[in-house]
Amino acid sequence: MVMNGNVTEEMVYLRPEAFTDTSTHYCPGCTHGTAHRLVAEVIDEMGIRGKTIGVASVGCSVFAYNYFDMDFVQAPHGRAPAMATGVKRVLPDHVVFTYQGDGDMISIGTGEITHAAARGENITVIFLNNTNYGMTGGQMAPTTLPGQKTTSSPNGRDVELQGFPVKAAEMLATLDGASYVVRRSLHDPKNIRLAKKAIRTAFETQMRGLGFSMVELLSICPTNWGLNPVESLHWMAENMVPYYPLGDYKVHPAVANLRF
Predict the structure, then answer these.
(1) How far, in Å, CA of 200 to CA of 217, rounded?
(2) Would you list the domain boundaries of the chain?
(3) Per-residue pLDDT tens for 88-117?
């Protein structure tokens, strides 16, 4: 901004205290960074950094522990919910969350996430859905859309041969142990704000001892989609959001009316 002919600077961005001063390894435009910031902001605003433990998955988010200035552990592929279960049971006064992608959580980890939710484990899951195996080359994932081309489905996903995509939020919401299951998106500012509120509510669900909570975040993968970041955001809005409808799939009455 300019004042009396002098150029001064106005602070418009501060790195959350829950973040480390580390350069990102994510591809340009990847919304993993957006999701990380939302989680960090919520942790700061709730004042829980000193008693929060994150569990990193295997996939693009494998280095999540580099970016969060708090206790973190690394789980084997797909086993983050199992590790989070153990951590939470040993340290019930801590806030425990997993950070997982679709290749990790809804492929090799399907059994782990399903039974953690069925048991009503008092943990929080942040689930990034970008419809492919991002880290290993963009292969077809359980969430790949019908007809979507990937490196392992170059002609597009054929549902007659490869089945239909797994809708994680809808599936987990049917389990009695799940208390808060929602889907949000990271494709524009409005939905990013709604995603942050959902993450806060998920942590509140855990802190109130209500059981399993999961926030699914539709995310982009410009590199493997073969699009630039802006094109990827449009593609997500036009293709992913209609197939994976945004909304609340299960909300415990105790957190239904929270306002932040």
Answers:
(1) 14
(2) 27-252
(3) 999 999 999 999 999 899 999 999 999 999
